[in-house]
Amino acid sequence: MTQIAIILGSTRPGRRVDTVAQWVAEAAGRHPAVQAGEASVELVDIADHELPLLDEPAPAATGIYQKAHTKRWAATIDRFDGLVFVTPEYNSAIPAALKNAIDYLWAEWNHKAAGIVSFGLYGGTRAAEQLRQTLAEIKVADVHAQVAINPYVDFDFTEAEAGVCAPGERQEALLTTMLDEILEWSRALRVLRAPAASAGPRPGPT
């Protein structure tokens, strides 16, 4: 089974990333591969891991993780074959908490496929482009399809003051295409992920 993490990319109080991620999880649950038991999706909230500003003495590429919170985070990400990053756009960039969470690890990210669901006034597209640059550096294959959520179009404000993410059929169709691509690439990259990512100290990128 291909396991996909839906990563909530913000820790801000009052954030909207949780409602967007919940919509992603619900829509992903309707994907044929998930319904057939060939794939699974799981919400992964970086807020639950309580990662301080990067405090590891050694670079992540060495694999020498000393802090308990780093080891827990590494074990979480290591379980997955593919990733969906759900990120808002803060000042034309991804949230600092998401960048910090990415920087903690190295091998646990390598050779995995990822898709991006961004949201913001302009669909979060500038944050998504910045995230693509970061993913390339940690050897994550980001797929072409992307979902860009605009809160003024894709949110329902009748149920809650902060609104509930409720995109139309077009956005779910884009998400389905993105998941198709993540599954294809995750399977293709499996041979490169065969060695355990957390097998101990390892050299960094050359």
Fold blueprint:
Elements: E1 2-8, H1 17-28, H2 32-35, E2 39-45, H3 68-78, E3 82-88, H4 96-103, E4 112-119, H5 125-137, E5 140-149, H6 151-154, E6 155-156, E7 164-165, H7 169-188, H8 190-193
Parallel strand pairs: 1-2, 1-3, 3-4, 4-5
Antiparallel strand pairs: 6-7
Question: Can you put this structure into words, describing what you see?
Answer:
By secondary structure, this protein is of the alpha/beta class. It has one domain: Rossmann fold (3-Layer(aba) Sandwich). It has helices at residues 17-28, 32-35, 68-78, 96-103, 125-137, 151-154, 169-188, 190-193, and strands spanning 2-8, 39-45, 82-88, 112-119, 140-149, 155-156, 164-165. GO terms for molecular function: FMN binding; oxidoreductase activity. InterPro entries: Flavoprotein-like_sf (IPR029039), FMN_Rdtase-like_dom (IPR005025), NAD(P)H-dep_reductase (IPR050712). This is NAD(P)H-dependent FMN reductase.
CATH-level-4 superfamily name: Flavodoxin domain
Number of strands: 7
CATH architecture: 3-Layer(aba) Sandwich
Gross morphology: globular
Helix-strand topology string: EHHEHEHEHEHEEHH
Q: What top-tier CATH class fits best?
A: Alpha Beta
The strand line-up of the biggest sheet is 2-1-3-4-5
Tally of contiguous helical segments: 8
Global structural class: alpha/beta
Strand content: 15-25%
User: What's the end-to-end separation, in Å?
Assistant: 32 Å
Mean pLDDT: 93
Query: Main β-sheet, in a few words?
Result: 5 strands, parallel
Poorly predicted segments: 197-206
Looking at how many chains there are and whether they match, the oligomeric state comes to single chain
Gyration radius over CA: 16 Å
CATH fold field value: Rossmann fold
The residue fraction in helices comes out at: 25-40%
GO molecular function: FMN binding; oxidoreductase activity
Domain NADPH-dependent FMN reductase-like: 3-150
Protein name: NAD(P)H-dependent FMN reductase
Organism: Lipingzhangella halophila
